[in-house]
Automatic annotation (TrEMBL):
GO terms for biological process: cellular response to iron ion. PROSITE patterns: FE_B12_PBP, PROKAR_LIPOPROTEIN. This is Iron complex transport system substrate-binding protein. Residues 43-295 form the Fe/B12 periplasmic-binding domain. Gene3D superfamilies: Nitrogenase molybdenum iron protein domain. It comes from the Bacteria.
Length: 299
């Protein structure tokens, strides 16, 4: 249809918007700011673990000057760790030339953001990407640190994983995203895509997101037990900030026997739900080993 932009055209526009003008780097963040850097950032403080891991995946690990307590310390040896509640003075002491956060954390960090901006430190607020927005997200993130062709590693990783999805009948998987109200993953979420790439069938593929764009979808115990009657092979429980549970808690639930012969498997939240290019292949491979413990037919 005349006048419609194709997907490649959209990404060309994004790239053009991030190209330097007279040495500048300029992007629009997800809180409405225009972020302008004189050059690619060399000392980045990242206050969201997903941003930190994606910087690593883009080869910009040397530019990370500080991370939050939510980050995996094994990934950032020697990098200063900041408390979960942002501290403006401690951030400024690290002499950053860019601070990354996400819009969900801005309300609690409003005073910190004002302090940083008064100190001349650019702040960029980027939403955690969905599967569909990951490429555009990487274009913006990569522009800030001067990464070359930042979307290419993503395209290559996804393509390689799609080529190796196990063939044959798929195990039916139910993912518990949160025990509060018993939430599962929404059909378009990162976790749902990981399940599919691992060769699983999302047993709750008709779940309705909690709200538009949310990775969570309400399900409830009654519907879960009805679903178990149709057959669930693996009851996958993500464990982390969104679902702080232990195996003992799960096994003591009064309805747990209603899952029948389903295998109950706990998975670290960051492996299946964090939008991280760094963890994508490991997360898919980990889940493939769970779903196909004796090996599956690979193309």
């Amino acid at each position: 249809m005349a006048g419609r932009l194709t997907l490649p055209a959209v990404f060309l526009l994004l790239l053009a918007a991030c190209l330097p003008v007279s040495g500048e780097i300029r992007i629009s963040d997800d809180s409405g700011r225009t972020v302008v850097l004189e050059h690619a950032a060399r000392r980045v403080v990242s206050l969201y673990a997903g941003h930190s891991e994606n910087l690593l995946a883009l080869g910009a690990g040397n530019a990370i000057a500080g991370v939050s307590a939510a980050d995996d310390p094994a990934l950032f040896p020697g990098v200063p760790v900041l408390p979960m509640r942002a501290d403006g003075e401690r951030i400024l002491a690290l002499r950053p030339d860019l601070v990354l956060l996400r819009p969900q954390g801005e309300a609690a960090a409003e005073g910190v953001i004002r302090l940083l901006e008064r100190g001349g430190v650019p702040v960029a607020s980027l939403s955690p990407p969905t599967w569909e927005t990951m490429e555009a997200y990487l274009v913006r993130l990569g522009a800030l640190v001067g990464a070359a062709d930042p979307a290419r590693p993503w395209r290559e990783a996804v393509s390689a994983l799609e080529r190796t999805v196990p063939a044959g009948k798929r195990p039916r998987v139910f993912l518990e995203s949160s025990s509060r109200g018993l939430m599962t993953c929404s059909p378009s979420s990162w976790a749902a895509r990981v399940i599919a790439l691992a060769g699983g069938e999302n047993a709750a593929s008709d779940a309705v997101p909690l709200r538009s764009g949310s990775p969570l979808a309400p399900w409830g115990e009654e519907r879960l037990l009805a679903l178990a009657g149709e057959g669930i092979d693996v009851y996958l429980v993500q464990v982390g900030a969104m679902n702080p549970v232990m195996e003992r808690d799960i096994l003591e639930r009064p309805w747990i026997s209603g899952l029948g012969n389903a295998r109950i498997v706990l998975v670290p939240e960051e492996l299946v739900s964090r939008p991280s290019l760094l963890r994508l292949e490991d997360g898919v491979e980990w889940l493939r080993n769970v779903l196909y413990p004796e090996g599956g037919k690979r193309p």
